[in-house]
Amino acid sequence: MFSILFRHADFIAINKPPGIGVHQDKDSDGLTRLLAAQLGVERVWLVHRLDKPTSGVLLFALNEQAASQLAQQFAAKTIRKTYLALSDRKPSKKQGWIKGGMAKARRGAWKLTREMENPAVTQFHSISIEAGLRLFVLQPYTGKTHQLRVAMKSIGSPILGDNLYGGTQAARLFLHAWQLSFDFNDQHHHITAPLDESWPKQIQPFLADKAKSYE
C-alpha cells in the first residue's frame, strides 16, 4: 500500500518508497498499475518521474484532461520541486547554483559539461548536520536525467548511497523529493512528503523551521 499524501478529484500524490520503479519491468507490475489497483480505479496517469532509488512526492492524474494539464506544467517548469539529499563529503561551495550541459558517460551514468546551450540548472544550499554529514536542499529548475545526482557529484559531494556516482555505500540512495508546489485550476497546492526512519532524526528541527521557505 502506498502512502497517500493528498487526493484531489483530478490528481493524487503519494510518498514513493525507494526501490520501486515507475514503469513495469521484469521484476514488477509498475507503479501505475499497483496504484490504480489500490485506488480501485481503471487507470492513473503518470505526469512526471522519480528514479527508482529516489523516494518522495510523486504525482498522478486521475483523468486524461488533468494528465495533459499537469504534464504541460512540468514541461513549462512552473511546478516548483524541492529535494533533500545527504552526503558525507564537504562540497566545494556550501550554496549557490550548479549549471551545465548533460552528456552520457559510462555504465549508464551522465556527466556535467561546460555546454550552456540547454543546461541543467539546480539551486542548492547545505547545512552541517553532524561531523561528516551534510544535508542538501536542492531545487532543480530543469528536469534532466540524473540531474541532481550529477550536480552533487560535480561539487564534490556525491549523494550517500549513490554507487553510480561515487557516493559512499549506504543502505539506500539518500535522495528524497520533499515538496511540490503548483497551481491547478486557480488553486495553489503545496505537498510535502515526510522522511522515513532511515533518515537521521536530527534533520527534523531544520525541516520544521525551513519548510515554509520553499512553498
From TrEMBL:
A GO molecular function held by the record: RNA binding
Occurrences of domain Pseudouridine synthase RsuA/RluA-like (ranges): 10-153
Listed PROSITE patterns: PSI_RLU (PS01129)
Signal peptide segment: none
GO biological process, one term: enzyme-directed rRNA pseudouridine synthesis
Annotated coiled-coil segments of the chain: none
InterPro entries: PsdUridine_synth_cat_dom_sf, PsdUridine_synth_RluA-like, PsdUridine_synth_RluA-like_CS, PsdUridine_synth_RsuA/RluA, RluA_PseudoU_synthase
Tree of life domain: Bacteria
NCBIfam families, per the entry: RluA-like
Family: Belongs to the pseudouridine synthase RluA family.
Protein name: TIGR01621 family pseudouridine synthase
Species the sequence originates in: Neisseria zalophi
